[in-house]
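User: I'm putting together notes for a lab meeting next week and I want to include a structural view of one of the chains we've been expressing. I don't have a solved structure, so I'd like a prediction I can at least talk through. The sequence is below, exactly as it appears in our construct file.
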Amino acid sequence: MIANLKKIKIIFNKNTADEEVVELLITKVTEEHEQDHVFCNIECEGLAFNELGKIGYTYDISSADLEYDY
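Assistant: Thanks for the context. Below is the predicted structure for the 70-residue chain, given as C-alpha cells.
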C-alpha cells in the first residue's frame, strides 16, 4: 500500500537546534477550478499513524492539534 502513496515532510524550525520533521502520506488530492486559478486540497495521514493502523490502532489528529503543538 505504501508503494502507491506519495510522502511529504513538514519541517518546523529549519536549520535550528530544535528542528523537527513530520512525515505524512498523501491519501487524497482534489482540484477545484475558479476562472484562471486552480486550488488543490490535499488530505494527509501521519506516517506513524499509518503504521499503527496496520496493527489495529487508530488515532485522529486535526490541523487545530498541529497548530496548537507548533
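A couple of points you could mention at the meeting. The longest helix spans residues 47-54. The CA atoms of residues 12 and 70 lie 8 Å apart.

User: Perfect, that's what I needed.
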